[in-house]
Amino acid sequence: MNQSEFYRAKLMYETDSWDLAEALRNGDGLVIIDARSAEAYAREHIPTAISFPHRSMTAETTAALDKNKAYVNYCDGIGCKASTKGALKLADLGFQVKELLGGLDWWKRDGYPTEGTGEDGAEGISCGC
């Protein structure tokens, strides 16, 4: 693989907050998946995201998902691999997947809104990665 192919592949499999926000504004039909634990999702998540912890992704649990749609996985951010694990599982199951660079952390740093309980008591809540 040459450099051009490498960077083209990165753009195929990764997205950033701005591109995701634009895709949502344009109604591109993306499905956003929060691959962290259900507890972490409840505390805070990207609007319209669905909670689908990567640990529960199997052929059976993904059977109702539309393979014609694109799925963007995210997690907490740089110290978390839930989005990578979820993206790999979905890709292995035949889904079109991208990973959100920087996860929820960079989404918020870029000024985009979140939803959830907003509880500050994060201790004891695992991201599930």
Keywords:
129 residues; alpha/beta; Oxidized Rhodanese, domain 1; five-stranded parallel sheet; 5 helices
Please give a structural write-up.
The chain has a five-stranded parallel β-sheet. It is built from five helices and five strands; from the N terminus they run αβαβαββαβα. The longest helix is centred in the N-terminal third of the chain and has 11 residues, at 3-13. It has a single domain, classed as 3-Layer(aba) Sandwich (Oxidized Rhodanese, domain 1). It is an alpha/beta fold. Helix 3 (38-43) links the parallel strand 2 and strand 3 (50-51). It has helices at residues 3-13, 17-25, 38-43, 82-92, 103-109; strands at residues 14-15, 31-34, 50-51, 70-74, 96-100. The mean pLDDT is 92.
What would CATH call the architecture? 3-Layer(aba) Sandwich
What sort of overall outline do the alpha carbons produce when their principal axes are compared? globular
- What percentage of residues falls in helices of 4 or more residues? 25-40%
Rg for CA atoms: 14 Å
Give the overall pLDDT as a whole number.
92
The number of helical elements comes to 5
CATH fold field value: Oxidized Rhodanese, domain 1
Indicate the topology.
Elements: H1 3-13, E1 14-15, H2 17-25, E2 31-34, H3 38-43, E3 50-51, E4 70-74, H4 82-92, E5 96-100, H5 103-109
Parallel strand pairs: 1-5, 2-3, 2-4, 4-5
Quick summary:
This protein has 129 residues and is an alpha/beta fold.
